[in-house]
Design brief:
single chain; about 600 residues; alpha/beta; Rhopdopsin 7-helix transmembrane proteins; Heat Shock Protein 90; 4 domains; seven-stranded mixed β-sheet; five-stranded parallel β-sheet; elongated; binds adenosine-5'-diphosphate
Length: about 600
């Protein structure tokens, strides 16, 4: 028995240390953790009882005294308790069984019955040449239970090895340890290693599974995965919602534009139609804003760099701002450095979006005075640092509010601005875009006097541009004589809008309502100068239709994606899918003009 003492003392110290560390830390409250709490406590009790057993022998306590018998029985019960808890723990960790109230009641009943057996069954205590041990029915009964438990562990480990992963270590080690212990016990009968084996497994469980830090990280990972899934679902939902909103908007914007061009419509009615167009544009901007922010949050927004003409971008921004100023008594001043490089390499679309956001805000939050749109540059090697600023004499921003400006959905001084439309997304998107382009945005403002937003962006200078600066013609100048277009869309109203818009150019338009009908037309050797193909169609999408079209021998017609799927980056996706170009719904007249000019202009 003396030989067991060092093992018992060391095991006690280690287990106690682990217990102190474990209980001192905050841990997550799960059924496994609760079970581990009990396992730890029972381990310590087990060691103390085993220690007492050894001491009884060393102190020559009579073998068959009631006290010695009681300690031996207690030893069997705590061992059984430890083994049972360990088995339930493996079952829980492997996910084999979910421990609910009903199951718990059964387990407790089973436990009580087994303990009663252990207490009531006879126990023999033997002392052979100074080596004392217990035998008898109670001991054999416990051995039998342990064998059944071991088989259960092996079965669970085998079945759930993938799910258990690293968690298999303590369970496996314990089984090996038990085997070693049995062999050692057979060789040296006086060696008591029961509590050593169970404590060994308990300590290993702490390091591989139950360490609160590991558990926390595990829980955080699960929470992160769930959040990512929820975010992906949100992005999907928003993309679908965008499609759903854009489809009816396409009809509203399309028909309104047609009415504006209709000579028979009285001027008074046209005024109202203009308001419809403006309201639709606002709605579209809101949808786009929500889409952008969700894409940014899902880390799906990419910066797509291309060569672009600086002048063209600036001209478009000035035209758009002047249009938005309407009849407000505001002077729109511009100041563009004459030495700006003509062609730069960067994401022109996103730069425009940044400028539009701060220019629109300046217009929205200024009642009178002036707005200055200024662009200068600092050139170093082949990098041009664009310094874009928009200054206004508007309502200004309180100093304490400047930090909140870039928070999403944050609108400042709502009481005073209640009449100004906005979602509070513009600057949040702007900031994220500037960050994505490794730029900087700075705000200076005096409340009641005005604000100045300055954006710095580094763009590469293109010395030998591959693009030519396009000069788009107005549709009245485009020669589209004898041009034929095939429109493919499952939505009848969308077909009507696109058809009417194209007919204003004098283009011959044919409409079909599915990819199948489109393929039939091509197979019937019909010739078109351009095919405009909707993507989201039932049964066969536009992308699938295009794939099938390209399989038709000799097919070389230009195909444009005409779609309400307007998540940013979609243009690139459609070009990758093999489309020649992309036109978003609602159809913007200028964009349509560019497409007609590019693909149908005979000149
Ligand atoms: P919103 O859609 O409300 O305009 P933004 O994110 O673009 O959302 O702007 C957030 C808030 O910042 C606005 O609600 C407004 O209070 C304030 N703000 C932005 N630009 C200006 C400006 N030029 N002058 C005064 N306040 C501004």
């Amino acid at each position: 028995m003396i030989i067991s003492m060092p093992f018992i003392v060391c095991t006690f110290i280690f287990t106690l240390m682990i217990a102190i560390i474990y209980f001192a830390k905050r841990h997550i409250d799960t059924i496994e953790t609760k079970l581990y709490n009990y396992i730890l406590v029972i381990s310590i009790i087990n060691i103390i009882i085993e220690f007492t057993l050894c001491m009884n022998i060393l102190l020559d306590v009579p073998l068959f005294s009631f006290y010695n018998l009681l300690i031996n029985k207690l030893f069997l019960v705590t061992l059984f308790t430890w083994f049972t808890l360990f088995t339930i723990y493996i079952i829980c960790v492997s996910g084999t069984l979910e421990i609910k109230d009903k199951v718990l009641v059964r387990i407790i009943l089973y436990y009580l019955v087994m303990v009663a057996f252990l207490v009531l069954l006879p126990l023999d205590l033997v002392d052979e040449d100074g080596v004392a041990y217990s035998t008898g029915i109670a001991t054999y009964f416990l051995y039998g239970v342990c064998v059944v438990y071991s088989l259960i562990w092996l079965y669970i480990i085998y079945r759930s090895k993938k799910k258990l992963g690293k968690k298999i270590i303590p369970f496996f080690s314990f089984i090996i340890c038990l085997a070693i212990m049995l062999v050692a016990r057979a060789l040296i009968p006086g060696l008591l290693l029961n509590s050593f084996s169970s404590a060994f497994a308990t300590i290993l469980m702490y390091f591989t599974i139950e360490n609160p830090d590991i558990k926390m990280i595990e829980q955080l990972n699960i929470a992160r995965e769930q959040a990512e899934k929820a975010n992906a679902a949100k992005t999907d939902f928003l993309s679908n919602m965008s499609h759903e909103i854009r489809t009816p908007l396409n009809a509203i914007v399309g028909f309104s534009n047609l009415l504006l061009d209709d000579k028979d419509v009285p001027e008074k009615a046209k005024d109202e139609v203009r308001d419809i167009v403006m309201a639709s544009d606002n709605l579209l901007e809101i949808v786009n804003g929500i889409l952008d922010i969700s894409k940014i949050e899902a880390n799906k927004l990419e910066i797509v760099n291309n060569e672009y003409s600086t002048k063209k971008v600036i001209d478009e921004l000035v035209a758009l701002s002047k249009g938005r100023l309407g009849d407000k008594p505001i002077e729109f001043k511009t100041n563009f450095a004459p030495d700006l490089p003509p062609i730069l390499y960067g994401d022109a679309g996103r730069i425009k979006q940044i400028c539009v956001n701060i220019l629109t805000n300046a217009i929205k939050y200024t009642k009178e005075g002036w707005i200055e749109f200024k662009i200068s540059s600092v050139v170093k090697d082949n990098i041009c640092r664009l310094i874009i600023s928009v200054e206004d004499t508007g309502i200004g921003i309180k100093e304490g509010n400047i930090d909140k400006l870039f928070n999403k959905f944050e609108r400042l001084d709502l009481d005073e601005n209640v009449t100004i439309e906005g979602t509070g997304l513009g600057l949040a998107i702007t900031k994220k875009l500037v960050d994505l382009m490794h730029g900087k945005i700075v705000v200076q403002s005096v409340f009641g006097r005005g604000s100045k937003f300055t954006v710095c962006l580094d763009q590469r200078i293109v010395k030998n541009p591959t693009i030519k600066v396009e000069t788009e013609k107005h549709y009245e100048e485009v020669n589209v004589q004898n041009k034929k277009v095939l429109l493919v869309d499952d939505n009848k109203i969308n077909l009507k809008v696109a058809e009417r818009l194209l007919k204003t150019y004098g283009i011959d338009v044919e409409c079909v309502d599915s990819g199948f009908a489109c393929i039939d037309k091509i197979k019937a050797h019909e010739k078109y100068d351009l095919i405009m193909l909707d993507d989201m169609m039932p049964r066969m999408s536009g992308v699938e239709t295009l794939k099938k079209l390209k399989e038709i021998p000799g097919f070389d017609m230009k195909v444009i994606a005409l779609t309400a799927n307007a998540l940013t980056g979609m243009k690139e996706k459609y070009l990758n899918d093999g489309f020649d170009d992309y036109l978003a719904k609602p159809i913007n007249k200028d964009e349509l003009n560019k497409i007609v000019n590019r693909y149908l202009n005979s000149d």
